[in-house]
Amino acid sequence: MQTVKVEIPQNQAGSYPIFIGQGLLENAGTYIKQYTKAKKLLVVSNNTINSLYGEEVKKSLEQAGYEVYFLLLEEGEQYKNADSLQKIWTEAIRLKLERKDALIALGGGVIGDVTGLAASTYLRGVGFIQLPTTLLAQVDSSIGGKVAINHDSGKNLIGSFYQPKAVLADISALKTLSLREFKVGLAEVLKYGFIEKSCGLSGLNSSFSLYLMENKASIMALEPSIVENLVKYCCRLKAAVVNKDEKESGLRAILNFGHTTGHAVEKCYGYKGINHGEAVAIGMKGAFFIAMEKGLISQKYFEDALSLLNNYEMDYRIEKNISIDSLYEAMQVDKKVQSGKIRFILPVSPSEVRIFDDVNKQQLNNALKKLY
């Protein structure tokens, strides 16, 4: 078991740990006991995750002395909405949860996001603990305190910043993921390879992109030591960014590499038929196409980057019935827009990115055409 600490000097909540290892869910109560004085715990999950881990988590929490209750939400990005949020609030009120009590998110990014937003708003804030069971949640969405729901007009438009008390990333849970679901997380892992240097993590002695290329077979085979190190390094990179910029006033925006186009794609699909990782993979390719249009990167880096994406079979394309105009319109209501300008995170050299708000419509159109 390994630990990464997220330290946020500007936040009164201070620091919290990310535990990474095997068998953490069956010992959840032991870990959680250190980080909450709650009497009651409301575990939010879905039917699939509950059938796999609900009993062992419940048993562990009860053995630690908690009153444990479960609320199961519908599965899918389309349910990361106000209705699901309302269900959590209603259940918390029914159970008479108090401020010292806590909500626990057991599942992937959707469960984590909506549960975190509920925790941040119920009684103006109750304890919140993440038990991420997908690769996406373990390397990205469970870390850093971004919690949100979607709106018909766009992704993650309603949300807040609310840090968890602790994160337990049990890599054993990754064995139950389908290949498609595993690749959702791999898209975010690859993202870290493209932004590694910009994260400002000291002590780097190798290229994460090279590590990903050389260890693909072991990663895909879920070799425990390799996957544990992979999750830990991604957590360290994200923690390094969040520690400096909790509320995305500057540096943290680099974590949105591939997401400007990716979120627009998800919105235009109605959050059905394409998942977050597939959309982000499309968005990352789009960012490289824009960077080439603007002359920001060399042909060699462009080819190396696309080779890494293709090596992990991130060869997704936008369906032809989704128009470029609709994508552009979706980008204009994205939360990353500032002063009416769409902001893109673009590569400028290997593993380095910068924020740009001067991508003109012709450059964007030329790039988007290559994504179909």
Give a written overview of the molecule.
By secondary structure, the chain is an alpha/beta fold. It folds into two domains: 174 residues, 3-Layer(aba) Sandwich (Rossmann fold), CATH 3.40.50; 189 residues, Dehydroquinate synthase-like - alpha domain (Dehydroquinate synthase-like, alpha domain). Helix content is 44%, strand content 18%. It has 14 helices and eleven strands. The strands form three sheets. A seven-stranded mixed beta sheet has the order 1-2-9-6-5-3-4, with helices on both faces. A two-stranded antiparallel sheet has the order 7-8. The mean pLDDT is 94.
Task: Outline the fold blueprint.
Layout: E1 2-6, E2 16-21, H1 28-32, E3 40-46, H2 47-63, E4 67-73, H3 82-94, E5 102-107, H4 109-121, E6 127-132, H5 135-141, E7 146-151, E8 154-161, E9 166-170, H6 179-195, H7 208-214, H8 216-220, H9 224-244, H10 259-268, H11 276-293, H12 299-311, H13 324-332, E10 344-349, E11 352-356, H14 361-369
Parallel strand pairs: 2-9, 3-4, 3-5, 5-6, 6-9
Antiparallel strand pairs: 1-2, 7-8, 10-11
Helix pairs in contact: 3-4, 5-6, 5-9, 6-7, 6-11, 10-11, 10-13, 11-12, 11-14
